[in-house]
Amino acid sequence: MKTVELGTNKAMTTACEQPSHGPITVGSIPYWAAMPEVSPLPEPKKNTWGFAIPTCIIDTQSAPALVGVEAEQKYMRAFLMAGSADLVVTDFQLNQTYVHDYLSKILGFDLPQFMVVPSVGLSSLTNHLLSNPQALEGINEWLSRNNGQIQLFNVTQNEAKLALALGQPAFTCGDVQSAIEIGSKPGFKKLCLELGLAVPAGKICSTFTETQESVSEIMESGKTGFIKAKEGTGGTDLQSNIVFFPLELEASGLGLIDYVRGKLDAFGKLLGDEWVVEEMVDGQDGSIHVYIDPFSQPDTFVLGALTHDNSYVGGYFPYQTSPIECELIQKVNTKLVPALKAKGAIGFHCFDFKGEYFLEDNVRPGALDFIHQFVTRIAHKHFPGEPYSWYHCHVPNAGLYNFESIFAHFSQFLQPVSRGCFVAISNPEVLPYGRSIDMTAISVGSDNSVGEAQAHFYQISQLLHP
């Protein structure tokens, strides 16, 4: 079978004179059921975006907070971007109902090749590969035979060891060490400061004294702030960020020294050798996405982000950019992309922002990149040329603890339509976050809107979580 061409429903980045529809707010109702007022948006432009050559996907969850957590290691979605020309390496057998009955039969996807390697204890896919010479040889043979490249998820020092063990093959991220440097919280803040880009006020710290002084400075101004681990991921939920604020200090009854020491101790070994202390800023959450190819000018697009307790929980598309966000896109194109190319840090980049400030660079596909590519692939297959919108979030479920149960009860809602709404599920396992489902509602046709997608999402979520 031929590889499915991955297109993209590119977000409007030219209508900068039009105001954003405003933030997706979360009030007293559950965050996954938030229903803001959203106006229909113009049909966005389209372009083709995806892997240009055969790609070996090693979707390793190797961030420090994720290593050794079985449920986290099974939270993988990059294979949704893969077709028959690609290879997906895992250390567990993917759910066959999801892969064959849903992806192949209902969505009509051509499937990649799969290599399943044994797990050796609770660690990460990268570590399992490093202890398996036969698997490394098989990957190298596939890369050589197909003139392929490797797509990683997290890029850490473990992946640098993997690159060395494989003989330094081509990676979509380019130079692995540069990706590690830029992908760290301190590394990206340093780069932004060098380029004159706006970041929240704060400091890069490597000692307790520096941290105490920075926390004190932010709280003396009456503001809330974060301590951000060097290689953290997942926000506050995974202790990548820890919040501090004056009222909490007052209520704790502790002095500043003990208060700050308790915050740092809460990170355990996840803090790293340097970290960021910065104030919390106001503004609309979002992410600017780009795939940097060394030979062409990349296209940037914006996806709206949903957050809860300072952690990502979902997103929506299309996103109507405000004048401030258009300026951020321009800075990505004119400053960040050239600087990253010069450092050899290419491939996927997901720049999180809030208001006018850059927050971090995920030097990998962002969570919403997978959803965007997944929906784009469905659109290319089932309603090519039709405009669409989508709304995505994690939905707590009412006791359906595997995809077989979900499929048996809700398969009628998973059938793609060329007009109206349907839902798509983008993970083969029920997620560890509150036993939740990774679900996206898609609104298709000339009257599509984010609001309509949200309404359908809420309707189906009520069935899963009445």
TrEMBL record:
It comes from the Bacteria. This is ATP-grasp domain-containing protein.
